[in-house]
Amino acid sequence: MKVNSPRLFWQIALAGLRTRLTRGPQRLAILAGAGELPRIAAETALQRNLPFVLYHIAEARLDVQLAQNKRIERRVISLGNISQTIQYLQQDKITQVILLGKVEKQRLLQDVVRDAAAEEIYNHAADHRDDTLFLQFATLLRALGIKILRQRELLPGCFLPPGIHTKKKPETQSLLEDIEFGYEVSRKVGSLDIGQTAIVFEKMILAIEAIEGTDEAIRRAGKIARKQGGVVCKTGKTSQDPRFDLPAVGLKTLETMAEWGMQALVIEAAQTLVVNPAEFVARADALGLVVVAR
Predict the structure, then answer these.
(1) What is the per-residue pLDDT across 141-192, written as a single tens digit (0 to 9) for each?
(2) Are residues 88 and 34 in the same domain?
(3) Given 117, 135, 154, which residue is the final one in a domain?
(4) CA 68 to chain centre
(5) CB of 151 within 8 A of CB of 273?
(6) 87-119 per-position pLDDT tens digit
(7) Range of the structural domain that residue 132 is part of
(8) How far apart are CA 99 and CA 79, in angstroms?
(9) Is 238 within 8 Å of 271 (Cβ atoms)?
(10) Does 133 lie in the same domain as 13?
């Protein structure tokens, strides 16, 4: 995708040329949103002796354990201050970045103050979908000579293989049909880049995830179904970019499902990140939920 601002593009391109002329060995920046995934990536980088700097996105709450780790060099960046972020990347001689963790998109609409560079990206983008804005940002990084890594590269073991992973199985015909129905609905929703989650009950679509996120979509569905049941289906987009925004589930997903009367979780085996899979499945068992990876 082209940056629709020649002035911004050439400024970044020239900065990138200067950076490439002075850059040394490989150095990674972990752009960290909320949740456990940035911590897992940082721990993996430490184990592999990869030099990195943690860039905490200020609009997201950093994992507590990660925030307390004194071994990690860190900076704080803002979604609205692109110029400052670029300056940090150059100062730190960053050659690679990886983007992990949740950032609530509502923050873009509510309290993010955009600098001139962010304003140009936001106003000149064809639309404000996640993928569109990400590709604009990716173009800037490429101009700086910085490579974006695939999310899974620092998240070993964070995927479930195909199969039913819980002790409880989908035994009723109604639940089996909802699993098939919901999975296909989720795939179609993903193809439109609306969200990554569909929640169904008795072949009725209770909720589709939009800007509010998975947990809020589950709560909406639970209210509508009066906590009588439901299947939460989470899949990747048809043209999922492996560098960005892979669907992810964690313990909070399971807790919210149990609270609002959901019965089963269906995920895409090759595309959905699972935080600490063994602990995740054990918690699903304790809550009496079904977990299926397709």
Answers:
(1) 999 999 999 999 999 889 999 999 999 999 999 999 999 999 999 999 887 7
(2) yes
(3) 154
(4) 22
(5) yes
(6) 999 999 999 999 999 887 666 666 678 888 888
(7) 6-154
(8) 13
(9) no
(10) yes
Provide the pairing of β-strand 290-293 with 273-274. unpaired
The string over 114-126, giving b where at least 16 C-beta atoms fall within 10 Å of a residue's C-beta and e elsewhere, is beebbebbbeebe
Q: How far apart are CA 116 and CA 219, in angstroms?
A: 38
CATH number at residue 227: 3.40.140.80
Strands (E), the chain: 28-32, 52-57, 74-77, 96-100, 147-148, 163-164, 197-201, 204-208, 231-234, 248-249, 264-267, 273-274, 290-293
CB 263 within 8 A of CB 175: yes
Residue 168 counted as domain residue: yes
Sign of CA dihedral 118, 196, 30, 24: negative
**What single letter denotes the amino acid at residue 32?**
A
Residues 125 and 205 in one domain: no
